[in-house]
Amino acid sequence: MGTKAASAVLATAVLGSACATAPEPAAPAAAPSGPVFAQSSGGGRALAGTEVYKKGEGGYHCFRIPAVVRTKDRSTLLAFAEGRRKDCADTGDIDVVLKRSTDDGKTWGDIELVADGGGDTRGNPVPIVDGESGRISLLTTHNPGSECKSGAKCTRTPFLQHSADPKGTKWTAPEPQPQLTKSEWNTWYATGPGHGLQLTQGEHRNRMLVGITFGGSGGRKGAGLIYSDDGGTSWKLGAVDDRTGKKINPQELNLLETTDGAVYAAARNQDNNGTETSTGNRADATSTDAGATFEQEFAVVPELKGPVVQGSVVRLRAKTAGDPNDLILFSGPYNEDPKMAHRRHTLRIRTSADEGATWQEVGTVVDATWAAYSDLVNLGGGRAGVLYEAGPQESNDAHASIRYARFEEGDLDR
Length: 414
What we know:
Catalytic activity: Hydrolysis of alpha-(2->3)-, alpha-(2->6)-, alpha-(2->8)- glycosidic linkages of terminal sialic acid residues in oligosaccharides, glycoproteins, glycolipids, colominic acid and synthetic substrates
Enzyme class: hydrolase
Distance between the termini: 15 Å
Oligomer: single chain
EC number: 3.2.1.18
Helix content: under 10%
Strand content: 35-45%
Low-confidence stretches: 1-45
CATH architecture: 6 Propeller
Keywords: Signal
Number of domains: 1
Organism: Saccharopolyspora elongata
Number of helices: 0
């Protein structure tokens, strides 16, 4: 079904990073510094940018769950992550942190604390920039640090905070949002991860949307959408897919607006977790009523082979139906070696020219090392960036760092 393209290597600009720890934002370094990652991909060179976060930095054991947005004035990139203090587990003492770049990701400032776990878990950051005011809304989740271990009680609550200014230098305190979950979702709940969506057309223009994931007793599991019609001040629960017993378990939604105003939801299919297959691990669905319901059940996306893992989507070009320049992007790991195809290795960008109806099967290599979660950002002018988890080849660890790479449309194999 897909438009299979030969494997190519992303010719990404060499980026730098300036990594330090301080409570206040710092100006980026005058010149790029730090390691640049270039690994053999079997098809050539993969030039993948530099570290934004690395294990051990700032007193954190590791950083995970990247999310990236650009401020309304286009001057600043904000790279959010979970700062995991004691180990790299999904629960425990975890903060939400960010770094900023004022040069399109060439260099990055210091770690800034956005939400302090204080021994508990705060994570799954989902930032959304209001296109009208520039205010940034940030959805996250919280659980007691002693909970949510394997087979244990898991009280997960969504939280909301806002930037006090359009550049995100100060943040309000996180406020609980109990209306965005249900009592029966008592084994798991998560926002995003990755950036959120704001609609640009139609009756619900400016509506903000975020994907959610949930699990409950009795095997109930699935995904849904939450939305705001007042610039992120208040939020409601929208579409829900919880068709228990089906062979697709949509998780970790990432969203984009189609040219006809619908909401395209790209999902990880958790049903295949633990299996050594690279097929059937991605699913999608569409909402034609601005996120109130899903038009149909989630269905497998056959072209998007790869491991069971989160992925990101973003529009690079086209805003109106029928635009011949239509191009949307998907980021996620996929190694073509049959023995490695189910592993989190080799980050790629794959494209769709028909609003997600079909996708490239191979696409363009960003980083030919261990790689996991990612988030895409449109930089304008046919340029984009990707913030992603990665680790050196010898580490066998996709969570050793969070890196950033930027690229142009001409770098993509189509």
